[in-house]
Amino acid sequence: MHLKLGETSTIVVSSPKIAKEVLKTSDPTFAARPGTLALEIISYNHAAISFSPHNDYWRQMRRICIIELLSAKQVKSFGSIRNDEVLNLVKSIRSSAGKPINLTEKIISTMSATTCRVAFGKGGFDLADLFPSSTMLKTLSWNKLKLLAMRRKLDEILDDQTGDSKRKGNGEFGNEDLVDVFLRIKESGELQFPIDNDKIKAVISEMFSAGTESSSSTINWTMAELMRNPSVMAKAQAEARETFNRQKTTDTQNLKYLKLVIKETLRLHSPLPLIPRASREDCEVNGYFIPANAKVFVNTWEIERDPKYWTNPESFQPERFENNPIDLTGNNFEYLPFGSGRRICPGLTFGLTGVELPLAQLLYNFNWKLPEGISLDNLNMIENSGMTASRKEDLYLFADPFPNDFSS
To answer: Is 116 labelled a binding residue?
Structure first.
């Protein structure tokens, strides 16, 4: 689909075939991001990895993110933080037994606290109250003065945190929070493009909003889908309880069915329903001329519901991924929850790890019921409009503590 929005050509791609051409075959041509004044202000003049132009600075920052900030080893080193915060979540829900809880709020609070400790090595404030990605994306229509005011407030918080951070270890993984890692790299003097505080703040705030909003949204959508599909809920709970009781740990590696549940949630509720790209030069796609600087949006929401590629696409069926080679790495163009190509989400491992443990503990420790007056058929599943696809309404549920052999 071609739209002319003012003087800008906008292309919407809604088929896996054309998505592959844009995201793989012509990936270098479409490796740019569309720019807006709002993103320029919020991302510290496009210093954030997601919003940076495709250039040598972007390559450097992406490499730092993949190798230093969010490598599998580094993500694993944050395990004790995740465990602590999920334990706090379980305790909070237990204390509210017998009355409906706002699960959405509790999940956001947990993910916010986790990301805060990962980034700064300590809690003590909730940056998500100021700068969740859902709020940020709604501000794309705000005027410049409001955006600058929000940036100044963000600066106050991040300047305090990045200025206060001291090296806690000797540079080995496991002894550093994310700001420590940045400061170590900054002090090394080995970078082609030196890192200043604005660049650190851009990446940290980007990771905070993504780590909080995207992960909490996925958890909330998963719980909503499980409430609408009791047989899937029962199977996922049985797996979590049997596995944790047997292995006497809360390691989620062996929760195979839960991983299928998450994949199915990401199919129906992709964190990024429209993947934004921009053409860096004149080119041709599927026989059509695309001018330089055209905006291109890959419509993953439509692709991941296309009956040509998915049987009963509107049904929640985790088993569709069983013995199925389709994965999350962006190589299957009918399934792109984290994007594909050069611009695939660099925090994929961090995000998935942050989703699995809270979900597993929610399933392990509680039986769940809908509030009075809400049934499987009328549970509101409407999405927010915008670049992210979180639930429009908060999810309220009753949690009935389940007696387990292995205490979380």
So the answer is: no
